[in-house]
Amino acid sequence: MTKIADVVTGLAKALVTEAPIDLLTYQRDCSVIRPGHAQAMVRPTRRDEVVTLMQRAEAARVPVYVRGGGTMYAGGVNPQAGGVVLDLSGLDRILEIDLARGVVVVEPGVRFGALTKALRPHGMTIGIIPVTGPTATIGGAASAHALGTGSARHQSFADEVVGLEVVLAGGRVIRTGSAAAPDAGFFQRYCIGPDLTGLFLGGDATFGVITAVALWLHPVPAFRETVCYGFPSPVAASAFITDLQTRELTRNIWYGSGYEAPSIKARVLAAYPATDPASLPRFCVGLDYGGDEHSVRHDQETIDSLCREHAGTLAPVFNEVYFRRLRNEDLYWYGFAGYFARSRCAILMTSLPTTRLSAFLGVIDQQRQAQAAFTWGGAVVICKRGLHGGIMAFYDEATQWAAAASAADTAADALIAAGCVPYKSGKIWARQVQSFSAYHEILNQLKTCLDPQGILSSGNLGL
Amino acid sequence: MTSKVPLLAAFAKDLYHCSDCNYCVDAVWAERGIDHVCPTLQHHSPLMSFSGRGYLAAARAWFEGQELDLDALSERVFTCTTCGNCEQICPIGLRPAAVGRALRGELLQRNVMPQPVRDLLRAMREDGNPNGGARSDRMAWQQARTGAAAEHVLYLPGCAAATAIPAEAQAAVELMAAAGYAVQTLGNDDTCCGAPLFELGDETTASSLIDALAEKVRAASTVVISGLECARSWQRLNDANLQPVTFNELIMTALSTQRLHLNPRATLPPRVFVLDSCQSRTALAPGRALRQLLTALGIATTPSVDTARFIVCCGAAGGMPQVEPAAADRMADARLLDAGADAVVVGADPRCVAHLRRARRDAGPRVLGLAEFLNTHFTHDQNR
Lengths: 463, 384
Fold this sequence. Notes:
The structure holds 2 protein chains of 2 kinds.
Chain A: H1 3-8, E1 15-17, H2 20-23, E2 40-43, H3 47-60, E3 64-67, E4 84-87, E5 94-98, E6 103-106, H4 112-119, E7 124-126, H5 138-144, H6 151-154, E8 161-167, E9 173-175, H7 197-200, E10 209-219, E11 223-231, H8 234-246, E12 253-260, H9 261-271, E13 283-291, H10 293-309, E14 313-314, H11 316-330, H12 333-339, E15 344-352, H13 357-370, E16 375-382, E17 387-395, H14 401-417, E18 421-423, H15 430-434, H16 437-450
Parallel strand pairs in A: 2-4, 3-4
Antiparallel strand pairs in A: 1-2, 5-6, 6-10, 7-10, 8-9, 8-10, 11-13, 11-14, 12-13, 12-16, 15-17, 15-18, 16-17
Helix pairs in contact in A: 9-11, 13-14
Chain B: H1 6-9, H2 12-17, E1 28-29, E2 34-35, H3 39-43, H4 52-63, H5 70-77, H6 85-89, H7 96-109, H8 115-127, E3 151-156, H9 158-164, H10 166-178, E4 181-184, H11 195-200, H12 203-217, E5 223-225, H13 228-237, E6 245-246, H14 247-256, E7 260-264, E8 272-275, H15 286-296, E9 301-302, H16 320-323, H17 325-339, E10 344-347, H18 350-360, E11 366-369, H19 370-377, E12 378-382
Parallel strand pairs in B: 3-4, 3-5, 5-6, 8-9, 8-10, 10-11
Antiparallel strand pairs in B: 1-2, 7-12
Helix pairs in contact in B: 4-7, 9-10, 10-19, 14-15, 17-18
C-alpha cells in the first residue's frame, strides 16, 4: 500500500477521494499563492474520523492540510507539500446553544450564515462575522483570525472564542478553557493556567485540528443606522478614529471601515458622474451603528461632534452609494467577494496602529507608482483598538499570476517597513514571519512539541 | 491549446476570473433567502468537483491542456440539474452552469457520457421528448374544442405536460376555452422546443428544434406555453415577433379582466405550497403571478414571497431524473419536506410537478399543476 492509502483507506463514513478530477478543487484558496497538489481528500463527518486520520498521518508522516470554507486569501489551505486535504465542512453540527451561559458550541464546518440563522430565533448572534459569512466556516475563522462585522466592538474573532476542542497531530484530543476540566463545559476561557485556546487561534492549523469552537453569544442589535464621515486627509481621519477608540465610542458600532480617495471617487462618480471630484473627501469613515436606539443616538451625536473637531463632515453621498447599500443589500458579505468583480486580486491583510493609517495608505500609493502593471486598492476595518488593513492588487491570472505574487511580496515588505504587521498569515506572509526570528523560534519549538513529525499545514506561518 | 476545447474557450474569461470564493459551493444567507446552493452537493455528493466551482476548475485544467479522466469528468458534469443557482449566487457574475453545459458539449462531441445520457439522447431523437412516450402519443390527451370563440390561441404544452402529466395539458385547454379562447394546438406537428438537449449540452440541436418550432407557430397571434423550460428556450431564441405567454400569465389576465370566473367547488385547501421553480429566475416571474392568482382566489400560500431566485432545484432538470434518479428523488423529497405533509403543492412548471409526483410515490403532500388545481377545486364560467 502507498503511504496515502495507509492513511485514508477504510475511514468509516468519511468521504475519501483520490481522483485527480476531485482534487482540482482542493488545490488552493482565494489567494495569489500557487496551488498545491494533494494526493487525497478526506471529508469526515465525525470527530473520531479526524482522530483516526491524524493518528495514521503521523505514523505514516503524511502531510495534512486542513480546510474549511476555503475562503482564505493567504494560501493557508494550499497543500504545497502534497499529502491529504482534510476538509472539515462535513463537521457541520451546532452542538449546543446555551443561553444561560451565553455560549454556542459548534463543529468547525458550520458556516456563519447557518449559525446566525439558527441563533436568530433566540434573538442572539455572535460577536464577529466576517465578510465571507455565507460560506466561511467557524473553524476556518478561528484558524485564521477572522475580522469584520463586530470588530469595532469585540476586536477579533479570537477574542470571542470561549474555548476549543482540538485534535493534535498524533490523534490526541484536548479541550481548552473551562472545558479542560471533565464535564465542566465551555463557559470561561481564562482559567486553569495559561491561555491554551489562543495557541490554536490564528495558528493556520499548524498546531492542531480544531474540531469544536465555543463562542460568546450577543443580542442582535435592535437598531441599525449607517453614517459616513468625510475627511480632508488620512491624518485627520486617523485622529478621529483614534479618539473614537480611546473614548470607547466603538461600543455601539456594528461595523466600521475606512475608504481611501480612489475608492470614494470611483463609487461616487459611478453613481453621480457630474460630481466635481475635487469636492470629494480624501478619506471616508463608514460607521454602521448597532445597539438600542437611545444609546446609538447618544453616541452618534458625540461622534458627529468629534468628526467636526477633526475637520470632518458628513458624507451622505458616499453613505448612500456605497456604505448603506453594503449594509442593506449585502450585509457586507459580498464585500469580500465583490473585490473580485474587476478581476482576481492578491490580498494582503495587515494589522496597524490607528496612528499608522497614513503610512498604510502611503504604501498603497507607493505600489501604484512602483508596480503600475497592477491596479491597487485598499481599505481598513476599524477595530476596538487599532486597524486591520487590506491591500489589493488586481491581476489577470492568465498572464500576470507570478508577477502578482511577486508584487504582493514586495508590498508585504513595504508594509513591514511602514510599521504594519502580518495579519492572516497563511503562506503569503511566511517569509516576513520567519524574519521575526525570536518569535518564530518559539513558534518552531511549539510546532515541534505539538506536531513532532511536522505533518500539519506545512508552510503556514513559515513553519 | 484552445482549439482542442472550443466550447470551453468561449468561457476563458470566466475560467481565469473565478476567485475560488466558494459561494457556488455552499452558502447560507437567511436575509437573502439563500439556504444552500447546489442540489447535487446537497443530495448526491459533497465533492466540490460536482459543483459550479468544480466545473470551472475542470474546464480551466482542460483548457490549459491537462489530461483529464473524461469518464470521471462526465460522471460529474452530467450529474448537474443545470438549475443555475451557482450563477445566481456568484458575486462577480460568472457562469459556472454554462461552463458545465460547455463541458457536457465537449464530452458529447467525444462520445463520452454516462449510459443514461445516451438513452436520454436516443429518446429525444426517436420519441421527440425526454420522457420516452412514442411521438405519435404526444397529443393523445387532446380533445376537440369547438365553439364560436373569437380569439385564437395556439397552445404548446411542452414535453412534461404533454407526455408526463397530460391531465395538466388537458385542464389548461379547458380553462383557456372557459376564458373564451379558441384553443388550437399543432396536433401531430407539436414538437419539443429543445430545452432538454440544451441542458444536456447539445446546444446546436437544441437551437435547431426551437427554430423549427418557431417556424410552425409564426402565424399565430398568441402562443401559450406551459413548460417553463420551454419559456427559456423562447427567451434564448430572442425573436421579438415570437414572445409566447405562459399559461399562468394568461389565466391571471383572464381572471383580472373578468374574462374568466372561478367558483370554489367545495371547501378549498387551507394552505397551498407554491412550488417555485428554478426555471423562472429570469424575467418570467411566474411565482409572483401564481401567488397573486391564488391570493385573488382566496387561498393562503406559503412561502408568501417568490423564492425562485435562490431556490434549490427539485431535481427535475438537467437530466438528473434519468442520470441519478435516487439523487433526483432526494432533491424532490427535500422540496416536499419544505411543503409539509398537509399542504397541497401547486406548481406552475409541469416538469417539476411531474417529477415531484413521481418521486413522492403516493406519500407526502398532493402535488398538482396549476391548471389541474384550478380545475379540481373550481368550477368555471365565461363572462361573455
